[in-house]
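Supplementary Methods S3. Complex input for the 2'-O-acetyl adenosine-5-diphosphoribose-bound model.
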Amino acid sequence: MRAELARAARLLVERRPFLVLTGAGVSAESGVPTFRGPDGLWRRFRPEELATPEAFRRDPKLVWEWYRWRMELVFRARPNPAHRALAEMERLGLVSCVVTQNVDGLHQAAGQRCVVELHGSIRRARCTSCGHRLAWERPPSELPPRCPRCGGLLRPDVVWFGEPVPEGAWRRALALLEEAGGLLVVGTSGVVMPAGALPALAAAAGKPVIEVNVEESAVTPYATVFLRGRAGEVLPRLLEEARRMLA
Ligand code: OAD
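Predicted complex, serialized as structure tokens:
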């Protein structure tokens, strides 16, 4: 691990800035459950009953109950050392931006300035009638919540299965990847598209890919360096190693 860590830090310093791609694993140590794996949400819940436009049309209250439960977790959660190390890497110029599949807003809470949210945010809602967007200060009490402008049905401002990711966000992710010297991938299974395509795109463009994960994933075949471990432990060590090289 020591040698791999030094190799990753050298790549980060020499090819800076890196673009970062994150998934649920980066927030696991903040107490926000991941989707796949032994304790993953998709073991206990069926995505097609909760995270699709059809499910929302069928039973908006049920879908909102699930989102309110997750909102309660997210509003209580605090950024962990992984989020903070990435924000510090940005300040040092090692990282340009974080493209995240997470909807929890914890990168921003850690002080990350550049964040591209590919799957939206659970902290916001949007009106299914007039498109008005609002940010929650706390989870809604009345379910399903209604639009303060037009009385229409509000939905979580997140991307569901079968929906495209916001076009602007994806274009931005591709432009950022083009400008970056490499890709640092943290805590994602890499199986959900289009985010899951970024490691292959980086590798095809000859850019180094550093992966941080507790286990191998669909990203690992593209990884130049694989750092096995918890993001909250590995990223602060990677930051320290890179900082030493910068000094
Ligand atoms: P997943 O739950 O699919 O994958 C989480 C990854 O994090 C796995 O590869 C774990 O091994 C890894 N992991 C867990 N704990 C970790 C830790 N402490 N440190 C480092 N790695 C850790 O989550 P995503 O890849 O984010 O989409 O899932 C992608 C999308 O699928 C989500 O955004 C969501 C979901 O369905 C939508 O809802 C549209």
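The chain has two domains: 2-32+79-119+165-246, 38-76+127-158. The chain has ten helices and nine strands.
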